[in-house]
Amino acid sequence: MTLKVLTALGGARMGGAEAFFVTLTGAFQRAGIATRAVLRANPVHEAGLAASGVAYDCAAFGGPFDFWTKGKLKRTLRDFHPDIVLAFAGRANEHMPRGDYTLIGRLGGYYNLCHFKRCDYLVCNAPDLVRYCVEGGWPKERIIHIPNFPNLEPSATVSRASLATPDDAPLVLALGRLHPNKAFDVLIKAASRIPTLWVWIAGEGSERANLERLARELGVESRVKFLGWRTDRAGLFHAADLCVYPSREEPFGNVVVEAWGYGVPIVTTASTGPAWLTRNGEDAIVTPIDDVDELANGIESLLASKSLVEKLVANGRARVAAEFSENAIVGRYIELFEKTKFQRAQP
What we know:
Radius of gyration: 21 Å
């Protein structure tokens, strides 16, 4: 009998977790799993699911007085009758009614564990999140570590001219929510020390005004482009010479495996996830957190050495093929689903 999986996402924002929800749900469909999704209305997420042929429902996933969502979820569960519900982050888990299915909560960050108390199992995308959950009281045998894989889509290269960027300038790509944890301020300061460097920052968030102000104060506003949220990540990677991931806090690091998959050398900081993922000098240049000088030095080392770039790119692609391919990661999810679909941990 075909495995039936419902994926659920309660957030409406754009970000790495939300993008991976769409990526993973589509991968389940491609793997032959009978898949359905339920999410808060979001045109970008909905378009991504539709492009993968995934049927989906929308629900509000509101606050404590949102009684409509639970009724909507009950109807979806009754109509689809899944073996497994894989619920991303806290809100989807809190709203999900109990039923004759296994509820698996997925963590991609240090979320409040009280939101997951009704789950049968947890999936964490990084080892440090497993540690966090165990220290938070979860039995280790009910926590499974499964990392992310990059969503490598074909795409035309984004024209540098379309973003007022010279074709011959060294170009850094940075991606992520504009939040203090992402440390784009450190990247902007590093760019001010490399006069030839141009920077594209793809993302949106509460720090945008502060970052734009910093770029003006440092005199690099013409060389640092804020692109907002983009759906053409592949085209951005194709246009860039290197990727920089300067995060202060990062449990996994989707951008690292994306850069590897697209063959773009990466400079990252030693935040928790990237420090676990990468091998300094082998598949990435790893610099200390919040160290502007070392981040600038790391960027310049790649701009100065074609052989180092080639080494990092080759090793990064090998890492994706061996450890972080879609087939390998989805295979681990299928193994988990088959093992747990009749073994609910909660009464």
